[in-house]
Amino acid sequence: MAVKVDAAATLTALQVMRDAPVIPVIVLTDVAHAVPLARALLAGGIRMLEVTLRTPQALACIEAIARDVPEAVIGAGTARSAADVQACAMAGARFIVSPGYTHAVGTACRDARLPLLPGVATGSEIMAAQEDGCTELKFFPALQAGGLAMLKAWNGPFGDVVFCPTGGITVETAPQFLALPNVKVCGGSWLTPADAVVGKDWARITQLAREASRLRA
Ligand code: 3PG
């Protein structure tokens, strides 16, 4: 069940995972889209937002949402270095998502007091992240790296770890992932299709968010 936390409080990785069934993976190319997009997702019941560091505008978008949409909880995705983490913290990000795990990224997040969902795709990567204290992990790229079967297999040796599978998941397949005991939330870009963002179709995005916020296992 979703657990709502104080939007202004320092978060744990588990709180990031338990706020809603889906964390939208967002790519923004225009700072002017950031605030209306965040508001559209909020209106649909989704407030944990991952803006990926994949465009030159990403940090400015994170900063705009942090400043103008305080009801949202803005996070940064695609963080790949300590410098990325520090820049995201400066921009106002409240949590960090990374496509893989390195000790440097883990340390930078701890230093910045930001929860981290690091990406893993193998047992060794899970063990490295666990060694540094991470037990809430992103399974990436979920579909390509083994999907449901991989998560079921991991629940044996890594029964103390929970996952946010991301990559190739859709509104139709998310419930199968959410039904697994070691999955707390799914990540996905389907809530924010590029054509809807560029076309400023905020009503469509609210509708996609509403649908996602109601997903159940
Ligand atoms: C990503 O980080 O790009 C995520 O894996 C999003 O994947 P999706 O576009 O398949 O949802």
Tell me the Rg in angstroms: 16 Å
Distance between the termini: 10 Å
- Give the amount of beta strand, in percent: 15-25%
Describe the largest sheet. 8 strands, parallel
Number-wise, the strands total 8
Ligand inventory: 3-phosphoglyceric acid
Which descriptor suits the 3D outline?
Answer: globular
Uncertain segments are none
User: What's the number of helices?
Assistant: 10
Helical amount among residues, as a percent range? 40-55%
Compressed to H and E, one letter per element, the order equals: HEHEHEHEHEHEHEHEHH
Secondary structure layout plus pairing:
Layout: H1 13-17, E1 22-26, H2 31-43, E2 48-52, H3 58-68, E3 73-77, H4 82-91, E4 95-98, H5 103-111, E5 116-120, H6 123-131, E6 136-139, H7 147-154, E7 162-165, H8 174-178, E8 186-188, H9 194-198, H10 202-213
Parallel strand pairs: 1-2, 1-8, 2-3, 3-4, 4-5, 5-6, 6-7
Residues 25, 140-141, 166-169, 187-190 line the site of 3-phosphoglyceric acid.
How would you characterize this protein structure?
The chain is α/β, with parallel strands linked by helices and 217 residues long. It is built from ten helices and eight strands. The protein has helices at 13-17, 31-43, 58-68, 82-91, 103-111, 123-131, 147-154, 174-178, 194-198, 202-213, and strands at 22-26, 48-52, 73-77, 95-98, 116-120, 136-139, 162-165, 186-188. The protein has an eight-stranded parallel β-sheet with strand order 7-6-5-4-3-2-1-8. Helix 2 links the parallel strand 1 and strand 2 (48-52). The termini are close together. Bound molecules: 3-phosphoglyceric acid. 3-phosphoglyceric acid is lined by residues 25, 140-141, 166-169, 187-190.
